[in-house]
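1st attempt posting a full record on here, be nice pls
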Amino acid sequence: MDCDGDGLIGGDPCPQDARNKCFGEVAVDQTTGGIIRVNTNTGSFECSGSKLDCSGDLWVADFGYNLTAKASACNLNGGGESCVVTGITDIFGCDDEETEDIFQCEHSDKRSSPELSYDFDVPDGSYVVNLYFANTYSGTTSAGDRIFDITIEGVLVYDDFDQVAVGGADGAVVRSAIVTVVGGDGLQIAFGHVTENPAIKGIEILGPAGL
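the predicted structure (as tokens):
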């Protein structure tokens, strides 16, 4: 049973916390020196860039991606501050404008080769990867409108993921995975087309103390 709605059915390290913060501290990218708690959007929208969420955690500007296209902002209800994403409190335990910003901007891609992916330089070890989603596009408000695969470290962790089927037409969603990094080549996350284009709002990687 998924008590906290993070997608982890068995072996959830923090079964009452959708962000799994009991697992450890936010990981640091060894190449950039930046934390891997990323507001994923490469544009210049108000919702882009570094944000301080309602729990006091810093989210840094987008990095680690292989494709710049496409950056977009919510257009529901006319966009801007009229865009209301529901369910944020269920994940964060609180809500405010900058937390909403994280869910109002996204990084997606067009059908292309290669697919959109992220690569973070972290040491070998065990990590929790939290991926944040929400439908904020008026053209994909129904289940089945946007479906994609999520692969982490070469393993398909979410097959045919549909954020609307999980969170509704405007709902915040988190999907987590426990991964083990080996081989010294960092941690890779890839999004594969099924229907429409994959889209991601935020990425957060947590590791045990010392990683």
